[in-house]
């Protein structure tokens, strides 16, 4: 009798090993049952990727960007400990990776390199396009739609405004309209982007109900990131809770 | 039921139990913020000025500038308590020599660690170099245990203090410290919002993007090389971009139409979780950064956003308005096992899982309809409000040591960036310029 446990030990280990994969599989399956779970949708090769200008058209997931896996371990920037007889450590600031800006050469001051290599005219062009969009939208007499706090339902007043807008769009069939969803500063930046999209889509859906062709309309959410005013008052908040209609200029 | 099935079920159950215990243990670490944690009393005698020529940087101020940064780092470490040595009349020891007799007086008054140093400009280099030596006396062993010698240009003076502070934390805790960490954030530039990176204490800010429109919600890669963020192409389309900080090189990772927001790389960097509305409403997706395969994680009529990974990488917390106002939910990294975490209040969003695993910070709407920071344990058992008063608080992000949070608030009018301890103490504003600074995210430690 005394010998039995030692005989069973390898047996139990064997069963453990045999059963372990079954356990993990079980766990995964039962987990998936908790929620209707979709098959993985894989998208690739839609964009050319590699750099920012590479993505065009329908969009998707870039097939080509560098590995973000964390290799861990030592780097040139690791702490070396307090020494009884310290040798000199030369610090190069961001160039040697102390800012996470490292790993690329390490010569001198890289303040200039740090700036994104963006088209120097990009900001100016953006400004010019925003201005022409504003002018075109004002000339069209497009009316914005305002929302109540936390809400994306179109009010009676909003429906009136959209009826006027729908008539204008139908009589100007060559224009593309952009509906911007905006929010007041209360709430989180991230959730307000979701709320802004709901507002923009509510406006689009109502315009489509009024007979506007959907392919003339696009939506974009700016959340609370492009406010019309910045005071912390209800008067300002109500200005920022809006579906803003813009005649689209440029790409 | 056969013997084998019974045995298998039994073994599965016990293994499962062990696995749960282990996974729980792996996510909870010792917490220096708990009240019984004894901070180590540390005194800084001073950083003296030595040698060298006068310069525009001002030799006389060099030592005291480094000393100020060092003291602030020591105080913020929360590993040490900074003792004022002035009333004790402590004198610095010479390096390599016996501890100064005055040190005895300090240790009698409870000081465990004494730090001092010297700094000077080197005359023979152009532009002039800065040298800094720092020394450490440990009362436990009653000896000068060693020091550090740094050299560099005048632009790395603050970094010398930060590195020395991190070495002190490392010696006494085995952790790298946070003095050399960075904070990425969004700052208003004219009508545009661009990405910036600054030191954890708010100094040395650098502009990262200059598109002239909107770049939002930066998030660090675990190796600190990259930021992932939401960018707007031509004002009309949102995409998730990545930028390499050393080079400014930039990639578009996701541009699927609709919202492409709240990107977050997993702790091992293998997965990018994000929210996209290209299939209707905002849902969570997981992009494998090696195979580039996309896996949809959520399926429901509500908006799902703001994923934040557990330090184990096995779970994430996110916000969803599937049950009305936004609430926090937990799920496994493959989208399974979804369960609601928050039940207090009608608005809980922007979760951030602590790098120690034991807390989740988030924005909660109080009964007075104020947006403040709250903390909740991942099991939902403990919950507390961290900030109070006027202003909208947003975007909490943990320091890599799990002892601090950085967040934005309009408490002083314009949106600015603040730091607070995980226990709600030491609220500190760290940005003072500009009309709008927001969406701070704390870098990992290096």
What's the gist of this structure?
The complex is a heterodimer of chains A (251) and B (446). Chain A has 251 residues and is α+β, with helices and mostly antiparallel strands. Chain A has helices spanning 4-33, 111-114, 122-140, 156-171, 189-209, 234-240, and strands at residues 60-61, 88-91, 145-146, 177-182, 217-223, 242-247.
Describe the structure.
The complex is a heterodimer of chains A (251) and B (446). Chain A has a 4-stranded mixed β-sheet. Chain A is elongated, with a radius of gyration of 29 Å. Chain A has a domain at 131-247: OmpA-like domain (60s Ribosomal Protein L30, Chain: A), CATH 3.30.1330. Chain A has helices at residues 4-33, 111-114, 122-140, 156-171, 189-209, 234-240; strands spanning 60-61, 88-91, 145-146, 177-182, 217-223, 242-247. Chain A is built from 6 helices and 6 strands; from the N terminus they run αββααβαβαβαβ. Chain A is of the alpha+beta class. In chain A, strand 4, helix 5 and strand 5 form a beta-alpha-beta unit. With 446 residues, chain B is an alpha+beta fold. Chain B has 2 domains: 40-173, 3-Layer(aba) Sandwich (Rossmann fold), CATH 3.40.50; 182-442, Neuraminidase (6 Propeller), CATH 2.120.10.30. Helix content of chain B is 15%, strand content 40%. At the A-B interface, helix 1, strand 1, strand 2, helix 2 and helix 3 of A face helix 1, strand 4, strand 5, helix 4 and strand 7 of B.
Enumerate how many helices of chain B there are, as a single number: 4
Query: Could you give a short account of the major beta sheet of chain B?
Result: 5 strands, mixed
The counted number of beta strands of chain B is 29
CATH class of the domain at 131-247 in chain A, please?
Alpha Beta
CATH topology of the domain at 131-247 in chain A: 60s Ribosomal Protein L30, Chain: A
